[in-house]
Amino acid sequence: MAFGGSDAGGPGLGTSAVKVLIAGGFGVGKTTMVTSVSEIQPLRTEEMISAISNRTDDLSGVEDKRTTTVALDFGRITINRSLILYLFGTPGQERFWFMWDELATGALGAVVLADTRRLDGCFASVDFFERRKIPFIVAINNFHGEQAYTTDEVRDAADLDAEIPVVQCDARDRDSSKKVLETLLQHLIARTMRAHAQAQTQARQR
Amino acid sequence: MNGRESWYDDDAGPLVRPFTVTRGRTKASRTDLNMITMVIAAPGESGRGLDAEYLDILRLCRSPMSVAEIGAKLNLPLAAVKILISDLIEGRYLLFSSPMSSYETDVPDMNLLQAVLDGIRRL
Fold first, then answer.
1. Number of structural domains, chain A?
2. Could you say which residues form the signal peptide (chain A) (predicted)?
């Protein structure tokens, strides 16, 4: 990585950052999970999203373009002296955050939180990450203390690939949320190793 | 970076003119800033003479700070804070780090992933 001011010279900054997204349906506990592992009180940031609405003017046929403000909460984990991990809880207004390109760009991966009382709330997020080819795991938030579905049932319902981990968690609990992030990182490492192995096999075959 | 006669030389460009927050601009001149770009105040840079919004940013950036954190702490939307940070980088008041490799390639760096995993385990 390179550091610089307006030119490439100058003293180094020495710190860079990566991000992980915490997604899922409304009220599933995204901000709760961010709060339980973040070293800072979660902060809130806003972005203006241009959305083209379906409503069209009958006479002109011109699409109605409007701007909406989307807010999200995020936390921070200092990984080491030169690396910071940001956790972004995706906003509740799903149909808007899907248009927030920058949020997804460059994310290491995502945790899709699922609430078994409203399992369909996580489907849109699963679709989104699959389409964007952003690696993710699914964590079932059992904060209400009942495991209504097994991980396999959730996997079937969301039609997930066999390689995608599905785990149970309690987003309020720091250790449980840590475990979820660990599972995500292990999944990312396993994927990367497979990709490297595949590339080597292909190189040999050439 | 240092030893300039004054901050309002010709090279500073639009920085020298007084303005209110972004002066109606909606796009940052730098397009390489994202929400987790880390910035830090240039060493020995007090930003004397700059407008209050810029000074607020410089004060926050005595230690490395992300664009998103600066926006949240100053209660500014990302689009606006990027414009201000962009101005400060152009004026050499701020240094920034370019994105991690995962922004540029599909396959993330193994050492990076391992470092993140180790960091989470240490929490």
1. 1
2. none
